[in-house]
Design brief:
196 residues; alpha+beta; five-stranded antiparallel beta sheet; 6 helices; 5 strands; 44% helix
Length: 196
């Protein structure tokens, strides 16, 4: 689903909402499944948050303010990353490729570098592959920090990162040149194309 999710009562506690409803004679219902710890969210509410709220009654307000501050910080960083992307990355939608000068990329804060890495992936992949993991991000940063002048990395779904001196190009491999590529999921077994 798309669109903006608005939660106007998120900053209110359950007790505040119930008190308001009772004072203003607003009928309400309580879902009985909320009382069980069978669901992860309820287990967290009853077994983790309840003791914290008992010890620290204003925890809810502090957590809400912290969450709002993080959201504002993230929105700012996303905006800065979009500007960095526009200034630094040469993106070619037709060729499904992106490239940048590594030394310029490294002058930006790491928080923006990570976000631009993810922006590049979002632009190039139509949908992020399920086998794309945090280790790929670590490999990306190892590649651009490497002293090797020329090297490359293969990412899922045929995406290739090619370092040539101070330039990194991210594009999809020419499958005609590809001899063989297969992602192994461990543990498990794999049958090769020849049946072995």
């Amino acid at each position: 689903a798309s669109g903006e999710l608005i939660r106007p009562m998120l900053s209110c506690s359950k007790a505040q909402i119930q008190q308001y409803c009772e004072q203003h004679e607003v009928p309400y219902r309580i879902d009985p499944s909320n009382d069980t710890v069978d669901y992860t969210r309820n287990f967290f509410r009853h077994r983790v948050l309840a003791p914290i709220k008992t010890e620290f009654p204003t925890f809810h307000q502090h957590a809400q303010r912290f969450s709002e501050a993080l959201k504002a910080d993230e929105a700012y960083l996303e905006g800065q990353a979009a500007e960095m992307f526009a200034e630094l990355v040469e993106y070619d939608a037709g060729k499904q490729a992106a490239a940048f000068e590594i030394d310029r990329f490294l002058t930006y804060p790491i928080a923006l570098q990570r976000r631009v890495y993810h922006l590049i992936l979002m632009y190039l992949y139509q949908a992020l592959p399920v086998d794309l993991h945090h280790r790929h991000e670590a490999q990306f940063f190892e590649l651009i920090a490497s002293s090797k002048a020329n090297s490359s990395l293969d990412f899922p779904a045929g995406l290739q990162l090619t370092k040539s001196y101070n330039r990194l190009t991210v594009s999809f491999r020419n499958e005609a040149k590809d001899l063989f590529h297969y992602t192994f999921h461990a543990p498990g077994s794999v049958t090769l194309p020849d049946g072995s």
